[in-house]
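Appendix B, record 7
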Amino acid sequence: MNISVVIPLYNEADSLPELVAWLARVMQAHHYTHEIILVDDGSNDDSWKTIEQLAATNPGVRGIKFRRNYGKSAALYRGFEEATGDVVITMDADLQDSPDEIPALYRMITEENYDLVSGWKKKRHDPLSKTIPTRLFNATARKFSGLKLHDFNCGLKAYKGIVTKNIEVYGEMHRYIPILVKQAGFTRIGEMAVAHQARKYGVSKFGLNRFINGFLDLLTVSFITRFSKKPMHLFGAIGTLLFTVGFCAAAWIGIEKWIAMNQNIKAPLVASNPYFYIALACMILGTQLFLAGFLAELVSRNAHDRNCYHVDKTT
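Structure tokens (predicted):
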């Protein structure tokens, strides 16, 4: 099969018939063998009823329904498990992603040998309350990840089929799929400017909490990609540094006191010096961080996937 289209959705009953018809026209025009996997993330409107109707009248359409809302990442991961196409396309169900972009994305994967091609909504039809946080988010993600992508969170992406079988999208990590793909060893990551349609049906799911959670998730994914297999390198280094700073400061305070006593100079009590407590706090925190790294290292070494690597094999 040429293409699997994975579409996570939540309360998008109005847009689904038009989206599926549009996809069918594109696939037929380019003679692609395809499947459309609609993952209903616990919608409370008529989305599932619409999916059942579409699946009954369109042989290439399949539906998956979550009993409650688990989030976009879970929906994508479930769709990836079901996808069988050589190329997997993901897109949102709100008609803001254009199916007409699929042939160009497909060519970049099959002819230019990209592992992942991420869409870039160069011209957005969103209010400033959404575009400004999005730009800040993307700038931060570029800085942390080293990937020179303009739009990490664009729903329209194309993958080699093997890529989707080697990444685990969980929590709210769908925002950082390019980083997860890079971590899995797929380094051919490209970008393509895509059209962004104005929302036609429904309401946006974007809120301030997503912006805040996005940056917290970025810290999480950055830590996981760098230190999940070697936590001692982070906690141990910081802990050792703090302990050394605190020990040196405490030693300096003690030496000053000793010099003053040898010269018969009245010196204040060590405990009355505020720097003594700062030094003590540094040594305590340093010790705790070092122990945290040691315990994390023990947990990591007992993890079932500690020696799990992504490989390719010849037949």
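Remarks on this record: The beta strands are 3-9, 34-40, 61-65, 87-90, 116-121, 157-160, 189-194. Confidence is low (pLDDT under 50) at residues 306-311.
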